[in-house]
Amino acid sequence: MKIEIVRDIPQLTNITKKMLSEGKQIGVVPTMGALHAGHMSLATESRNQTDVTIATIFVNPTQFAAGEDLAQYPRDLENDIRLLEEVGVDYVFIPDSDQVYPEGFTTTVQPPQVAMTLEGEHRPTHFAGVATVVLKLLNMTRASKAFFGQKDYQQSLVIQRMVEDLNVPCEIVVCPIVRDTDGLALSSRNAYLSATDREIALSISRTLHITEQLIREGERDNHVVMNEMKQSLIDGGVDMIDYAMVANANDLTIPEEIELPAVCLIAAKVGKTRLIDNCLIYEK
Ligand code: AMP
Questions:
Q1: Are 63 and 126 spatial neighbours (Cβ–Cβ below 8 Å)?
Q2: Hey, which residues are catalytic here?
Q3: Does residue 32's CB lie within 6 angstroms of at least one atom of ligand 1?
Q4: pLDDT truncated to tens, each residue of the chain (284 aa)?
Q5: For residue 175, how far is its CA from the centre of ligand 1 (angstroms)?
Q6: Ligand 1 proximity of 39 Cβ (cutoff 6 Å)
Q7: Residue 256 C-alpha to ligand 1 middle, in angstroms?
Q8: Whole-angstrom distance between the N-terminal and C-terminal Cα of the chain?
Protein backbone atom coordinates (compact mmCIF):
# COMPACT_ATOMS: atom_id res chain seq x y z
CA MET A 1 0.00 0.00 0.00
CA LYS A 2 1.14 3.54 -0.72
CA ILE A 3 2.39 5.48 2.28
CA GLU A 4 0.25 8.48 3.26
CA ILE A 5 2.03 11.74 4.00
CA VAL A 6 0.49 13.71 6.87
CA ARG A 7 1.58 17.27 7.45
CA ASP A 8 -0.79 18.66 10.03
CA ILE A 9 -2.09 17.67 13.44
CA PRO A 10 -5.87 17.77 12.68
CA GLN A 11 -5.31 15.41 9.74
CA LEU A 12 -3.30 13.10 12.00
CA THR A 13 -6.02 13.20 14.67
CA ASN A 14 -8.65 12.11 12.12
CA ILE A 15 -6.50 9.16 11.09
CA THR A 16 -5.69 8.02 14.64
CA LYS A 17 -9.35 8.36 15.71
CA LYS A 18 -10.42 6.14 12.84
CA MET A 19 -7.70 3.56 13.56
CA LEU A 20 -8.57 3.40 17.25
CA SER A 21 -12.29 3.12 16.51
CA GLU A 22 -11.46 0.10 14.34
CA GLY A 23 -9.63 -1.41 17.32
CA LYS A 24 -6.22 -1.08 15.69
CA GLN A 25 -3.04 -0.77 17.71
CA ILE A 26 -0.81 2.10 16.63
CA GLY A 27 3.00 1.99 16.62
CA VAL A 28 5.13 5.11 16.27
CA VAL A 29 8.73 5.48 15.11
CA PRO A 30 10.01 8.97 15.95
CA THR A 31 12.94 10.13 13.78
CA MET A 32 14.70 13.26 12.60
CA GLY A 33 14.88 12.00 9.01
CA ALA A 34 17.97 11.30 6.85
CA LEU A 35 16.87 7.74 7.33
CA HIS A 36 19.06 4.64 7.18
CA ALA A 37 18.82 0.91 7.94
CA GLY A 38 18.82 1.63 11.70
CA HIS A 39 15.59 3.60 11.40
CA MET A 40 14.21 0.93 9.07
CA SER A 41 14.80 -1.77 11.68
CA LEU A 42 12.56 0.20 14.08
CA ALA A 43 9.89 0.60 11.41
CA THR A 44 10.01 -3.11 10.62
CA GLU A 45 9.70 -3.97 14.30
CA SER A 46 6.67 -1.68 14.57
CA ARG A 47 5.14 -3.34 11.51
CA ASN A 48 5.64 -6.73 13.19
CA GLN A 49 4.26 -5.71 16.56
CA THR A 50 1.38 -3.34 15.75
CA ASP A 51 -1.47 -2.91 13.24
CA VAL A 52 -0.63 0.57 11.96
CA THR A 53 2.79 2.20 11.85
CA ILE A 54 3.29 5.95 11.88
CA ALA A 55 6.84 7.21 11.33
CA THR A 56 7.49 10.80 12.27
CA ILE A 57 10.13 13.05 10.72
CA PHE A 58 10.85 16.20 12.68
CA VAL A 59 14.22 17.84 13.24
CA ASN A 60 13.36 19.06 16.71
CA PRO A 61 14.98 22.46 17.29
CA THR A 62 14.61 22.35 21.08
CA GLN A 63 17.00 19.42 21.47
CA PHE A 64 19.83 21.29 19.74
CA ALA A 65 21.85 23.88 21.64
CA ALA A 66 23.20 27.05 20.04
CA GLY A 67 26.32 26.16 18.04
CA GLU A 68 25.20 22.58 17.36
CA ASP A 69 24.31 21.24 13.90
CA LEU A 70 20.58 22.10 13.64
CA ALA A 71 20.95 24.12 10.42
CA GLN A 72 23.29 21.59 8.77
CA TYR A 73 21.42 18.48 9.93
CA PRO A 74 21.10 16.24 6.83
CA ARG A 75 17.70 16.29 5.16
CA ASP A 76 16.52 14.01 2.34
CA LEU A 77 12.76 13.83 2.51
CA GLU A 78 12.20 12.19 -0.87
CA ASN A 79 14.53 9.31 -0.07
CA ASP A 80 13.10 9.01 3.47
CA ILE A 81 9.56 8.60 2.15
CA ARG A 82 10.72 6.03 -0.40
CA LEU A 83 12.50 3.97 2.29
CA LEU A 84 9.53 4.10 4.66
CA GLU A 85 7.19 3.02 1.88
CA GLU A 86 9.51 0.12 1.02
CA VAL A 87 9.26 -1.32 4.53
CA GLY A 88 5.49 -0.87 4.57
CA VAL A 89 5.06 2.08 6.95
CA ASP A 90 1.44 3.27 6.70
CA TYR A 91 1.78 6.97 7.52
CA VAL A 92 4.60 9.47 7.76
CA PHE A 93 3.91 12.53 9.87
CA ILE A 94 6.05 15.51 8.88
CA PRO A 95 4.96 18.52 10.91
CA ASP A 96 6.60 21.91 10.68
CA SER A 97 8.04 23.63 13.69
CA ASP A 98 5.15 26.11 14.09
CA GLN A 99 2.70 23.25 14.54
CA VAL A 100 4.76 21.49 17.15
CA TYR A 101 5.65 24.72 18.95
CA PRO A 102 2.87 27.24 18.24
CA GLU A 103 3.02 30.82 19.46
CA GLY A 104 2.90 30.90 23.26
CA PHE A 105 4.21 27.37 23.79
CA THR A 106 5.96 27.23 27.19
CA THR A 107 5.21 23.86 28.83
CA THR A 108 8.12 21.42 28.93
CA VAL A 109 9.06 18.09 30.48
CA GLN A 110 11.66 18.13 33.21
CA PRO A 111 13.66 15.00 32.35
CA PRO A 112 14.32 12.28 34.95
CA GLN A 113 17.50 11.88 36.99
CA VAL A 114 19.03 9.47 34.47
CA ALA A 115 19.27 12.40 32.02
CA MET A 116 21.68 14.34 34.22
CA THR A 117 25.00 12.58 33.47
CA LEU A 118 26.91 11.72 30.26
CA GLU A 119 24.96 13.35 27.36
CA GLY A 120 23.17 15.52 29.90
CA GLU A 121 26.48 16.96 31.10
CA HIS A 122 27.73 17.69 27.61
CA ARG A 123 24.37 18.81 26.20
CA PRO A 124 22.53 20.26 29.24
CA THR A 125 19.29 21.22 27.45
CA HIS A 126 19.16 18.22 25.12
CA PHE A 127 17.00 15.76 27.05
CA ALA A 128 14.39 18.34 28.05
CA GLY A 129 13.94 18.95 24.32
CA VAL A 130 13.83 15.24 23.55
CA ALA A 131 11.46 14.32 26.37
CA THR A 132 9.07 17.16 25.52
CA VAL A 133 8.87 16.38 21.81
CA VAL A 134 8.57 12.63 22.37
CA LEU A 135 5.71 13.11 24.84
CA LYS A 136 3.99 15.39 22.31
CA LEU A 137 4.48 12.84 19.51
CA LEU A 138 3.12 10.02 21.69
CA ASN A 139 0.06 12.12 22.48
CA MET A 140 -0.44 13.22 18.87
CA THR A 141 -0.13 9.72 17.40
CA ARG A 142 -1.99 7.93 20.26
CA ALA A 143 0.53 5.11 19.86
CA SER A 144 0.43 2.19 22.28
CA LYS A 145 3.97 1.19 21.32
CA ALA A 146 6.89 3.46 20.44
CA PHE A 147 10.12 2.20 18.92
CA PHE A 148 13.54 3.59 19.79
CA GLY A 149 17.11 2.52 19.10
CA GLN A 150 19.66 1.30 21.63
CA LYS A 151 22.08 3.49 19.65
CA ASP A 152 20.85 6.37 21.85
CA TYR A 153 21.04 4.30 25.00
CA GLN A 154 20.65 7.10 27.54
CA GLN A 155 17.75 8.52 25.53
CA SER A 156 15.97 5.17 25.72
CA LEU A 157 16.32 5.17 29.52
CA VAL A 158 15.11 8.77 29.72
CA ILE A 159 12.02 8.01 27.63
CA GLN A 160 11.27 4.80 29.51
CA ARG A 161 11.45 6.60 32.84
CA MET A 162 9.40 9.56 31.60
CA VAL A 163 6.63 7.25 30.39
CA GLU A 164 6.66 5.46 33.75
CA ASP A 165 6.77 8.65 35.85
CA LEU A 166 4.01 10.40 33.88
CA ASN A 167 1.79 7.31 33.42
CA VAL A 168 1.88 7.56 29.63
CA PRO A 169 -0.06 4.56 28.25
CA CYS A 170 2.62 3.60 25.75
CA GLU A 171 5.11 0.73 25.77
CA ILE A 172 8.67 1.69 24.83
CA VAL A 173 10.39 -0.91 22.66
CA VAL A 174 14.18 -0.59 22.35
CA CYS A 175 15.74 -2.16 19.24
CA PRO A 176 19.38 -3.25 18.75
CA ILE A 177 22.04 -1.07 17.14
CA VAL A 178 22.38 -1.53 13.39
CA ARG A 179 25.98 -1.24 12.18
CA ASP A 180 27.72 -0.92 8.85
CA THR A 181 29.77 -3.94 7.73
CA ASP A 182 32.91 -2.25 9.10
CA GLY A 183 31.31 -1.92 12.55
CA LEU A 184 30.46 1.79 12.51
CA ALA A 185 27.04 2.35 14.08
CA LEU A 186 24.70 3.80 11.46
CA SER A 187 23.90 7.44 12.09
CA SER A 188 22.51 10.25 9.97
CA ARG A 189 25.57 12.23 11.10
CA ASN A 190 27.96 9.72 9.43
CA ALA A 191 27.21 11.67 6.24
CA TYR A 192 29.44 14.45 7.62
CA LEU A 193 32.50 12.17 7.89
CA SER A 194 35.37 12.43 5.39
CA ALA A 195 37.17 9.19 4.41
CA THR A 196 39.90 9.91 6.98
CA ASP A 197 37.33 10.78 9.66
CA ARG A 198 35.58 7.51 8.99
CA GLU A 199 38.78 5.50 9.49
CA ILE A 200 39.26 7.24 12.83
CA ALA A 201 35.58 6.83 13.75
CA LEU A 202 35.93 3.07 13.40
CA SER A 203 38.06 3.00 16.53
CA ILE A 204 34.90 3.83 18.52
CA SER A 205 33.16 0.52 17.74
CA ARG A 206 36.51 -1.28 17.91
CA THR A 207 37.10 0.13 21.40
CA LEU A 208 33.64 -1.00 22.52
CA HIS A 209 34.43 -4.47 21.24
CA ILE A 210 37.78 -4.57 23.06
CA THR A 211 36.12 -3.28 26.25
CA GLU A 212 33.47 -5.96 26.12
CA GLN A 213 36.17 -8.62 25.73
CA LEU A 214 38.14 -7.22 28.66
CA ILE A 215 35.07 -7.32 30.90
CA ARG A 216 34.07 -10.78 29.69
CA GLU A 217 37.59 -12.00 30.49
CA GLY A 218 36.89 -10.95 34.07
CA GLU A 219 38.34 -7.45 34.50
CA ARG A 220 36.05 -5.66 36.96
CA ASP A 221 38.11 -2.66 38.04
CA ASN A 222 36.32 0.16 36.26
CA HIS A 223 39.29 2.48 36.60
CA VAL A 224 41.42 0.04 34.65
CA VAL A 225 38.71 -0.60 32.05
CA MET A 226 37.92 3.08 31.46
CA ASN A 227 41.62 3.90 31.12
CA GLU A 228 41.95 1.14 28.51
CA MET A 229 38.95 2.56 26.66
CA LYS A 230 40.46 6.05 26.53
CA GLN A 231 43.86 4.72 25.48
CA SER A 232 42.32 2.61 22.71
CA LEU A 233 40.46 5.65 21.36
CA ILE A 234 43.56 7.81 21.48
CA ASP A 235 45.60 5.08 19.75
CA GLY A 236 42.92 5.02 17.04
CA GLY A 237 43.29 8.77 16.48
CA VAL A 238 40.26 9.99 18.46
CA ASP A 239 41.50 12.93 20.48
CA MET A 240 38.28 14.78 21.36
CA ILE A 241 36.63 12.36 23.79
CA ASP A 242 33.57 13.64 25.67
CA TYR A 243 33.32 10.44 27.67
CA ALA A 244 34.32 6.78 27.53
CA MET A 245 32.73 5.01 30.45
CA VAL A 246 31.30 1.79 31.79
CA ALA A 247 28.05 2.36 33.64
CA ASN A 248 25.35 0.40 35.40
CA ALA A 249 22.95 -0.45 32.55
CA ASN A 250 19.84 0.45 34.55
CA ASP A 251 20.66 3.83 36.06
CA LEU A 252 23.94 4.87 34.37
CA THR A 253 25.80 5.30 37.65
CA ILE A 254 29.53 4.66 37.28
CA PRO A 255 30.60 1.87 39.68
CA GLU A 256 34.14 1.33 40.93
CA GLU A 257 33.65 -2.38 40.43
CA ILE A 258 31.78 -3.40 37.28
CA GLU A 259 28.69 -5.55 37.67
CA LEU A 260 26.52 -6.91 34.86
CA PRO A 261 24.38 -5.79 33.15
CA ALA A 262 26.71 -2.95 32.28
CA VAL A 263 26.84 -0.57 29.35
CA CYS A 264 30.00 0.84 27.77
CA LEU A 265 29.33 4.28 26.36
CA ILE A 266 31.44 6.53 24.16
CA ALA A 267 30.86 10.07 22.89
CA ALA A 268 33.61 11.68 20.87
CA LYS A 269 34.14 14.25 18.19
CA VAL A 270 35.80 13.13 14.99
CA GLY A 271 36.64 16.14 12.86
CA LYS A 272 33.55 18.31 13.28
CA THR A 273 31.22 15.37 13.86
CA ARG A 274 30.08 14.29 17.30
CA LEU A 275 29.43 10.54 17.42
CA ILE A 276 27.96 8.32 20.14
CA ASP A 277 27.96 4.55 20.42
CA ASN A 278 27.55 1.94 23.13
CA CYS A 279 27.63 -1.73 23.94
CA LEU A 280 25.41 -3.55 26.43
CA ILE A 281 26.94 -6.42 28.37
CA TYR A 282 24.58 -8.92 29.96
CA GLU A 283 25.45 -11.93 32.05
CA LYS A 284 25.76 -14.83 29.57
P1 AMP B 1 17.36 10.03 14.95
O2 AMP B 1 16.72 10.21 13.63
O3 AMP B 1 18.85 10.02 14.90
O4 AMP B 1 16.79 10.92 16.02
O5 AMP B 1 16.99 8.55 15.41
C6 AMP B 1 15.66 8.11 15.47
C7 AMP B 1 15.62 6.77 16.13
O8 AMP B 1 16.41 5.84 15.40
C9 AMP B 1 16.18 6.79 17.57
O10 AMP B 1 15.37 5.99 18.40
C11 AMP B 1 17.55 6.21 17.39
O12 AMP B 1 18.05 5.59 18.57
C13 AMP B 1 17.31 5.20 16.30
N14 AMP B 1 18.57 4.87 15.62
C15 AMP B 1 19.49 5.73 15.12
N16 AMP B 1 20.55 5.07 14.65
C17 AMP B 1 20.32 3.75 14.86
C18 AMP B 1 21.05 2.55 14.60
N19 AMP B 1 22.25 2.58 14.03
N20 AMP B 1 20.49 1.38 14.96
C21 AMP B 1 19.27 1.33 15.55
N22 AMP B 1 18.52 2.43 15.82
C23 AMP B 1 19.04 3.62 15.49
A1: yes
A2: 39
A3: yes
A4: 899 999 999 999 999 999 999 999 999 999 999 999 999 999 999 999 999 999 999 999 999 999 999 999 999 999 999 999 999 999 999 999 999 999 999 999 999 999 999 999 999 999 999 999 999 999 999 999 999 999 999 999 999 999 999 999 999 999 999 999 999 999 999 999 999 999 999 999 999 999 999 999 999 999 999 999 999 999 999 999 999 999 999 999 999 999 999 999 999 999 999 999 999 999 98
A5: 9
A6: yes
A7: 30
A8: 42
